[in-house]
Hints:
By secondary structure, this protein is of the alpha/beta class. It has helices spanning about 10-20, 25-35, 80-90, 110-120, 125-140, 155-165, and strands spanning about 1-5, 35-45, 50-60, 65-70, 95, 145-155, 175-180, 195-200. The chain contains six helices and eight strands, in the order E-H-H-E-E-E-H-E-H-H-E-H-E-E. The two termini are about 15 Å apart.
Amino acid sequence: MSFMGTGKHLRLIICLFVIHFGLTTQAKSKKNKSTPFVIKTQSYKVGKNNHKGLLVYKKKSKGKLPGVLILPEFWGINSDVKKKAEMVASWGYVVMVADFYGDGKGTQDPDQAQKWLKELEGKGQKHLYKTFMDSHSTLVGQKNVANGKIGILGYSFGGALATEMARRGLGFKAVVNIHGAVGSKNQAKPGTIKSPILWIRAEHDA
Length: 206
């Protein structure tokens, strides 16, 4: 596990860290089950393509809230990442799950997921980065999201992308990479990375 960050961003980092490892109390878990959410499809464009992210936040939330952009694993938007989005939203964030493939696709079938990922990678890095930026802009543009308060939470493929975007100098409140690669051909120059980064990678995963 690797950690880079400063004290003022620690709350968001620890929050996402605790959420991932399920360190919330039993009482908290019960509360989450009854928490009413607004869960809706958020349509947006990447070039000429239609994308459908998943937007989740508490129904009774007031004012502007910090936002978390979730970059899912290669499965796309499936039931597992929806549960993760609800969990993060229960902590008081506006959460959006990015749609990498278009039309809100998601699956539990590894062969299908691999096929979609191969098609995505075939479109090149510029397309992937644009997909990220348009997803990010869509979350930032929500009326209930506080200006300048965005965290990125990526799993596996999405975690690697989250780290790569931070490496390119984009400033986020925090970046959490869970099980994703951190290596890159694009080496960041000293001072380029503006975001605190938490990298979680288990040597022995259950």
